[in-house]
Amino acid sequence: MALNDSTTNDQALLDAQRELWHHTFGYMKSMALKAALDLRIADAIHHHGGAATLPQIATRVALEPSKVPCLQRLMRVLTVTGVFTVLGHQPADDNGDGDEHVAAYGLTPASRLLVGSPSVSPFLALMLDTSFVSPFFGLGTWLQQGKLPPDQSLFEMAHGKKPWDLATRDPAFGSLFNEGMAADSGFIMDIVVRECADVFRRVGSLVDVAGGLGGAAQAISKAFPDVKCSVLDLPHIVADAPAGTDVKYIAGDMFQSIPAGNAIFLKEGYTTKRRGREGNNTGYGGWSRAT
Ligand SMILES: C[S@@+](CC[C@H](N)C(=O)[O-])C[C@H]1O[C@@H](n2cnc3c(N)ncnc32)[C@H](O)[C@@H]1O
């Protein structure tokens, strides 16, 4: 049957609506991942040897029994988005309800990163925490605010403080923040020291600028004991730094001065730009040779 103009236009309207709905409900994917982290579904599957049925997952995550059908829907989102995988189906005849069911769920390369060590879960938990997600509700307002107060990030507009300063006022957020950043360093630095070994071997001393509790510097120091590693961070962060390691911790403000070293290292900075200078106030990463 040939489509008439009206059908073509209606299809175009439906396609346009679908496009908007796709973006409107896009947050469901990240919230489904957050629920998987909260419930530790990856651990539940791992606990069952990498393949777990829906009832096994439900039991392991202490699901309220009436919510099992909801868990099934959650698992559908998480398998469609590649977090978990479906390991075969149970034929319809084997079920009381006459529907085909997933026989078992398995881990994917993505969800394998959520179990064991190093696990990226603490970093994802930080990024999906209300404290980081809720500021985005004010994105439009933030964009209208111009430069007053100067250099205020979206996070600061919502919370009145930068993340690392909020950590001092709110110990629970502090733990979430520090564990999240440490988990990210733990994961990525294993790869960096393997892949960039030639770079580190040519360096005598290195300063990890805004290095937090020094997860990255610790990894470099461990892999390359000949590299003298220091971490520069704000005094209240350095106050919590681990003692008795080969890494030297220096309290200071990177906008005032940076200790001497052959190289400076920057990772996952989430810092506001210096007043009066153009910069990036969402993040930076990388490393560079000191002059
Ligand atoms: C997102 S964290 C990154 C920590 C670490 N580089 C990592 O990847 O785990 C940003 C760090 O920058 C530090 N920071 C912010 N402003 C700073 C400044 N002016 N001088 C030194 N450190 C600063 C914060 O205290 C915080 O530890």
TrEMBL record:
Residues 21-116 form the O-methyltransferase dimerisation domain. InterPro entries: COMT-like, COMT_C, COMT_dimerisation, SAM-dependent_MTases_sf, WH-like_DNA-bd_sf, WH_DNA-bd_sf. GO terms for molecular function: methyltransferase activity. Keywords: Methyltransferase, S-adenosyl-L-methionine, Transferase. Transmembrane segments: none annotated. Pfam families: Dimerisation, Methyltransf_2. It comes from the Eukaryota. Residues 139-267 form the O-methyltransferase C-terminal domain. One of its GO terms (biological process) is methylation. This is O-methyltransferase ZRP4. It comes from Urochloa decumbens.
